[in-house]
Automatic annotation (TrEMBL):
It comes from Bradyrhizobium erythrophlei. Residues 26-375 form the FAD dependent oxidoreductase domain. Residues 439-487 are annotated as: Disordered. Residues 453-467 have a biased composition (Pro residues). It comes from the Bacteria. Signal peptide: none annotated. Residues 442-452 have a biased composition (Low complexity). This is Glycine/D-amino acid oxidase.
Length: 487
């Protein structure tokens, strides 16, 4: 999968031409990632003329390198979301995220995207013993947000994942995972069939969003459209620098191991995706008995191959039984994270739309955003206003990246310390349990020893017999006391 990053199309993927002539369209989408392609697909299906401009190639950067986990939710925690906008609006946003997951499942079929490899089930595991928090989360998800979930106790989690690093878990049976790379290219094929036109190697160098017909400038052509959708994330650059600076660029890399054979099935018996609650580890088993594993996030770019050793160390930390594993391929890309933890979805000004900020949001959220914007443009769907409380906030530039890096290190360190403390306490409880069992067993054995026989009730206790005094020897001499004489 490393060819995702080198700017070339892989075997079996369509190479698309650059835009070299002037063009008019109803909608121009800037960026051929997951959100942009979803806008293009849905708008074309609804009858609009759509042009997609991509500076590199379809699925470049993060959209082509996802692990493919699809589940409802946002980067902002559910309780924080409720506190920010209230329960009713939080429910509506959550329903939108579920619609996004349903949309992905509807597109990701073998008929439309051969080899997409859909598998069900996502398990969110805790790095600490958090039973009370688990119960609270389950109640909110099932009762307030109508989401099917199961709570897994520690023994149930460890029966599937043989490591002492994880404690309780929340299982989402209707969540699923797909081949993320095939999905993004499958979206492009579906959009093309629906009538959208996709141009690669066509960066946007200028945008004039004034007037009814907006103007978009590329190095070799110009385009006019009634609506522009900015779906380029942190890569928008000069044409929309103000927007791109509201996003903190975050890189995440993933690796895939050599085939691990029986030793993998002996250690991991769960076939879906596993995500820890601290957002540090994410992994799943893929075809051929390989382990796909995502590294912790970083705010600085690096060559993917340099991350291989770190990914291997992380695997060995969680599952030491696997021993040393060889990482055969590494890939990655940059996403944009917002300060408030929610995606940027909606209309910036008349005819100018945004769909970005999908770092930590998941694949379902980008699908939801693309579908929602297409329907907003063509049907007048106003639900995008639910995202209005999450305004554009400057991410701090270089200072923000440095701060984000330090915060990430602190969070990972805090998570490691909390996990170590939780495992230490667990060992103490186990030692105390063993001591109590030994004490109980000793008391039980003491109670089984034969006791001295007692007389039947009503009978006197036998008098204790005195030990017989030694008989006087008949020939022993008698010694006279004072004033006596011997005989």
């Amino acid at each position: 999968m490393s060819d995702i990053l080198d700017g070339t199309a892989s075997e079996g993927e369509t190479a698309r031409a650059r835009l070299t002539f002037d063009l008019d369209a109803d909608i121009c989408v800037v960026g051929a990632g997951l959100a942009g392609l979803t806008v293009a697909l849905e708008a074309a299906r609804l009858g609009a003329s759509v042009v997609v401009l991509e500076g590199r190639h379809v699925g470049w950067s993060a959209s082509g390198g996802l692990l493919g986990t699809v589940m409802p939710g946002f980067g902002l925690g559910l309780k924080d979301l409720i506190a920010r906008i209230g329960l009713e609006d939080a429910r509506e946003l959550w329903d939108l995220s579920k619609e996004g997951a349903d949309y992905v499942r509807a597109q990701a079929t073998e008929q439309q995207m051969p080899g997409i490899a859909v598998t069900d089930g996502v398990l969110e595991v805790s790095n600490v013993d958090a039973g009370d928090r688990l119960i609270s989360e389950l109640q909110v998800l099932s009762e307030d947000f109508a989401t099917e979930v199961e709570g897994w106790q520690i023994d149930q989690v460890r029966a599937r994942l043989r490591t002492d690093r994880y404690f309780h878990g929340v299982y989402f049976p209707k969540a699923f995972q797909i081949d993320g790379r095939k999905y993004v290219h499958g979206l492009a094929e579906l959009a093309t069939r629906a009538g959208a036109r996709i141009f690669e190697d066509t960066p946007v160098v200028g945008i004039d969003a004034s007037g009814i017909r907006k103007r978009i400038v590329t190095p070799s052509a110009r385009l006019r459209a009634s609506h522009i959708v900015l779906a380029g994330n942190v890569h928008l650059g000069a044409p929309s620098r103000r927007l791109s600076e509201t996003l903190l660029p975050v890189w995440r890399y993933a690796g895939i191991t050599e085939p691990l054979g029986d030793r993998l099935s002996d250690v991991i018996a769960f076939k879906g995706s596993v995500i820890d609650t601290d957002g540090i580890d994410q992994f799943r088993i893929v075809e051929g008995g390989r382990l796909m594993w995502a590294s912790p996030e970083t705010t600085w770019d690096a060559r993917p191959r340099r991350q291989a050793a770190g990914i291997a160390r992380r695997i060995r930390t969680i599952f030491p039984q696997l021993g040393r594993v060889q990482i055969e391929d590494v890939w990655g890309g940059a996403t944009g994270q917002t300060v408030h933890g929610m995606p940027q979805v909606g209309q910036l000004r008349r005819g100018l739309w945004v769909a970005s900020g999908f770092g930590r949001q998941g694949l379902a959220t980008s699908a939801m955003a693309g579908q929602l914007i297409a329907r907003s443009i063509l049907w007048g769907d106003e639900r995008w206003r639910l995202f209005s409380p999450f305004e554009l906030v400057w991410a701090g530039g270089i200072t923000g990246r440095a701060a984000g890096h330090l915060i990430g290190l602190w969070e990972r360190g805090s998570s490691a310390a909390a996990g170590a403390l939780a495992r230490y306490r667990e060992r103490l409880r186990e030692q105390e349990r063993i001591r109590e069992e030994r004490l109980a067993e000793a008391n039980r054995l003491a109670g089984m020893r034969p006791m001295r026989s007692q007389p039947p009730p009503g009978q006197p206790s036998p008098r204790p017999q005195r030990s017989p005094q030694p008989a006087e020897h008949p020939e022993a001499p008698v010694v006279a006391g004072p004033g006596e004489r011997s005989v």
